[in-house]
Amino acid sequence: MTQLANEKYKLKLFKNSSDNILFWVSISVIFGVIENLLPRFFFIKIGFSYVPILLVYRRLKNKEIVVIFFFKFLITNIMSGVLFSHIALLSFSSNFIACCLFLILKSEVFSLFGVSIFISFCSNLSQLLVYGVIILKQKIVDPFIIPIFVLSVITGFISAFLTKLIEKRIIIC
Amino acid sequence: MSFYHKKHIVGDLFLFIFIVLIITGFYINKTKYSNELAVKVIFNDIEKIYDISKDNEISLKDGKIKIVIKDKKVAIVESDCKQQICVYSGWISHPGEQIICVPNKLFISIIGRDKFDSVSQ
Predict the structure, then answer these.
(1) pLDDT tens by residue, B45-97
(2) B105–A contact, CB cutoff 8 A
(3) By C-alpha distance, which of B71, B93, B66 is closest to B81?
(4) Can you spell out the DSSP letters for A22-75?
(5) B73-78 β-sheet, strand order
(6) A122 CA to chain B: closest CA distance, Å?
(7) pLDDT value, residue B33
(8) Hey, are the CB atoms on B12 and A113 less than 8 Å from each other?
(9) What is the interface pTM, i.e. ipTM, of the complex?
(10) Among the partner residues A108, A139, A164, nearest to B113 by beta-carbon distance
(11) Residues forming a β-bridge with B108
């Protein structure tokens, strides 16, 4: 990372795929760990670990995004000690949906805010579906779908806003 | 650098419409199956399923336990158990809600979304 004028930094992506994966997985996990340390408002998780991925997903290869998501899921669940529990299943569903959507929504047609809110909504919905179908064995989505939409708009907006703030300071090339 | 470019409006509108379609899909599904809730009553290891939309009064244990189904809700209104916890549980109406009377080995729950005729045993 090199410092430019106007307090801006220039961050060059690695040429080697595995270096890129290692770097962005670690950044993503750090963001996730910081989020876990912060006090939560009720049960709401903003999803800070998606911020680094939002920052670079358009510049990374599809294969790199998939591997980053896999390791992010693995490391965060090992670190929180829930890898072989139901929570890991919820985490896997949301990571899987988010990964697929990041691959699909790579086009410049969509804004960061739109992508972030949409991914937030879909990953929350997938968690609720998995929780209902596999854990409770009931369909529980209907009463929660509107609150989930509202929460997704808030959390998705915050994630995208943070990404934009970082983008203002760091130029990734 | 601005936070939002006008060129993204079409793409974001598409995503928003997609979200609205998902929500609408769930609501249509809910309306379609909303009348298919049922009351499952397990007493003495015998399971009975009642239609929640039909008002009904069920007497068990020679009338010592009285279960009432009314306005798509169900409650135990009378029971001979000591602590009356099942009676104090009140009315239940949503799928997954349960009333359990441990002394009488009675279990009532609302089950949903499975197709049934009327009463089965």
Answers:
(1) 888 888 888 888 999 888 899 999 998 899 999 999 888 989 998 999 888 78
(2) no
(3) B66
(4) HHHHHHHHHHHHHHHHSPPSTT----GGGHHHHHHTTTS-HHHHHHHHHHHHHH
(5) B56-60, B65-70, B73-78
(6) 8
(7) 55
(8) yes
(9) 0.82
(10) A139
(11) B41, B99
* Inter-chain touch B96–A117, beta carbons under 8 Å: no
Q: What one-character DSSP code corresponds to residue A110?
A: S
Contact B22 A107 (CB under 8 A): no
Residue A142, chain B, CB below 8 Å: the answer is: yes
Residue carrying the six token digits 């060129």 = B7
Contact B95, B35 (CB under 8 A): no
Q: Which of B15, B22, B30 sits opposite A114 (nearest CB)?
A: B15
- Characterize A54-84 residue by residue with b for buried, 16 or more Cβ atoms within 10 angstroms of its Cβ, and e for exposed: bbbbbebeeebbbbbbbbbbbbbbeeeeebe
Cβ-proximal residues to A43 (8 Å cutoff; 6+ apart), any chain = none
Query: Encoding tokens for residue A60?
Result: 């990374």
Interface test with B, best of A8, A111, A172 (most B CBs within 10 A): A111
Element (H, E) at A154: helix A145-169
B window 85-104, beta carbon within 8 A of A: 94-96
